[in-house]
Automatic annotation (TrEMBL):
Residues 276-414 form the Acyl-CoA dehydrogenase C-terminal domain. Gene3D superfamilies: Acyl-CoA dehydrogenase/oxidase, N-terminal domain, Butyryl-CoA Dehydrogenase, subunit A, domain 2, Butyryl-CoA Dehydrogenase, subunit A, domain 3. It comes from Sistotremastrum niveocremeum HHB9708. InterPro entries: Acyl-CoA_DH_C, Acyl-CoA_Oxase/DH_mid-dom_sf, AcylCo_DH-like_C, AcylCoA_DH/ox_N, AcylCoA_DH/ox_N_sf, AcylCoA_DH/oxidase_NM_dom_sf. Residues 1-23 are annotated as: Disordered. PANTHER family: ACYL-COA DEHYDROGENASE (PTHR43884), ISOVALERYL-COA DEHYDROGENASE, MITOCHONDRIAL-RELATED (PTHR43884:SF12). One of its GO terms (biological process) is L-leucine catabolic process. Keywords: Flavoprotein, Oxidoreductase. It comes from the Eukaryota. Residues 1-18 have a biased composition (Polar residues). This is Acyl-CoA dehydrogenase NM domain-like protein. GO terms for molecular function: 3-methylbutanoyl-CoA dehydrogenase activity; flavin adenine dinucleotide binding. Residues 50-143 form the Acyl-CoA dehydrogenase/oxidase N-terminal domain.
Length: 440
């Protein structure tokens, strides 16, 4: 695979798949934003610089997110923006040209991007998560190889591991040197616009992860991500894997065809990805609240039939009350989510991976579950209640607020939040820690 990303030259076909209710709306203005040349700027180096760069990117993404979302545009241009801005390699090792940042800072970068475009924030968060696959599951040599490959080339990750579908099936080549993956996944977030795809399949009862090139003859994308409600820009459509060959040496964590287990450490990708979800929910809520407040200051009119008519909408007591309540909840959620991020950091970056205990892993998982519960409830409240303080005109397509609620409402259905509440409840009542599953 060359270092030239297919997304540099592949055309954007606009709406794909079958027509939807949103596609029936006539859209005059398609995405026309020209992004600045970040390649000519110094790359960010410190955590603060990366977060500031993420804010710059979010402001650019916010300019046309409503149009791109409505048109179901495939975000080739936006992923290239993440690369040019240096965000893709933020967590990569410094020795290979990366920022060398830890996962808790990655969450904050993801969150800033999600404030401008929830779909792109999700894709970046998934990229950061999957970039740790080799570190969490693989040998030290495999982890170093994959870190070098993606960092030096600015490669972007996707994955075909949706556990609600049947597992990909793996067979061995006749000479015993290769694993051959076959199967289909109904959802494969980001793979269509990625450079590398994480595969997970089963061979003789053993689950085997491997990382392969996203654009090859044996990988076909269904172009069927025509989701009406939200997260349209993630292009989370189906993927079909046909006779995709990877060498046994790429089977993460296997040495001489035998898996080298790391105990509880092997299971921490699950709470790590749950906190990815939580952070882009929070980022979407932050973006919605900030944009709504600007709209209210500029556009919301006072109610003319009140006993005490205010000069401007911002003078209305109920407007001040709602914004104060929403901001207080968002600030509290941010502190809770950041604390969970530190917990994940302390697990994933420990030097002795095998020293991680099931209890340490469980304590972090329950904190992540609690943060996710709060993020969904507060995110849905913020993205729906802002309309009460903006006024009826804010529902227009031109105002561009609807994607905030639609995105959180859509992705928060990923796995039932009721089970996350129950996990926290069992911990409170019985001291029971969550057992590792594909969703815990």
């Amino acid at each position: 695979m060359s270092s030239t990303n297919v997304s540099h030259s592949e055309p954007n076909p606009g709406t794909n798949g079958a027509p939807s209710a949103l596609d029936a709306v006539k859209v005059i203005n398609k995405s026309t934003v020209d992004y600045p040349d970040f390649k000519s700027k110094p790359r960010p180096k410190t955590a603060d610089e990366f977060i500031e760069r993420a804010k710059e990117v979010a402001e650019l993404l916010a300019l046309d997110v409503a149009q791109r979302d409505l048109n179901n545009e495939i975000p080739y241009k936006q992923i290239q923006l993440l690369k040019d801005a240096g965000l893709v390699r933020a967590l990569g090792p410094v020795k290979y040209g990366g920022g060398g940042l830890e996962i808790d800072i990655g969450y904050k970068i993801e969150r800033e991007v999600a404030a401008g475009d929830g779909s792109i924030g999700q894709l970046l968060g998934y990229h950061y998560l999957w970039s740790y696959t080799a570190q969490v599951v693989g040998t030290p040599e495999q982890a170093d190889f994959e870190a070098k490959r993606y960092t030096e080339n600015d490669y972007f990750y996707g994955a075909a591991v949706n556990p609600r579908d049947e597992d990909l099936q793996i067979t061995e080549s006749e000479d015993g040197k290769y694993l051959i993956y076959n199967g289909r996944k109904a959802f494969s977030t980001g793979s269509k616009i990625s450079d590398l795809t994480v595969l997970e399949g089963v061979l003789n009862g053993a689950h085997i992860f491997a990382i392969t090139e996203s654009h090859q003859e044996g990988i076909k994308y269904g172009d069927d991500w025509n989701n009406v409600l939200g997260m349209r820009g993630t292009q989370s459509g189906s993927i079909t894997i046909t006779n995709v060959r990877v060498p046994w040496s790429s089977a993460l964590g296997f040495v001489d065809k035998q898996f080298r287990p790391l105990g509880a450490y092997n299971t921490i990708l699950l709470p790590t990805i749950q906190l990815v979800f939580t952070n882009f929910y929070l980022g979407i809520a932050q973006g919605a609240l900030a944009k709504a407040s600007r709209y209210t200051v500029a556009n919301t009119r006072p109610w003319p039939f009140a006993g005490d008519v205010k000069a401007k909408g911002v003078g209305e007591f109920y407007v001040q009350d709602i914004y104060g309540s929403l901001q207080a909840k968002v600030w509290g959620l941010e502190a809770q989510v950041d604390a969970a991020g530190v917990s994940i950091r302390n697990l994933i970056h420990r030097e002795n991976r095998e020293s991680l205990t099931a209890e340490e892993r469980g304590q972090t998982a329950v904190r992540v579950a609690a943060a996710k519960v709060q993020a969904i409830e507060i995110g849905l409240e913020v993205t729906s209640k802002i309309y009460e303080v903006m006024g009826a005109r804010s529902i227009s397509l031109k105002a561009g607020f609807d994607h905030f609620w639609r995105n959180i409402r859509t992705h928060s259905l990923h796995d039932p939040v009721a089970h996350k509440k129950a996990e926290v409840g069992r911990y409170v009542l019985k001291g029971e820690l969550p057992s590792p599953t594909w969703y815990t």
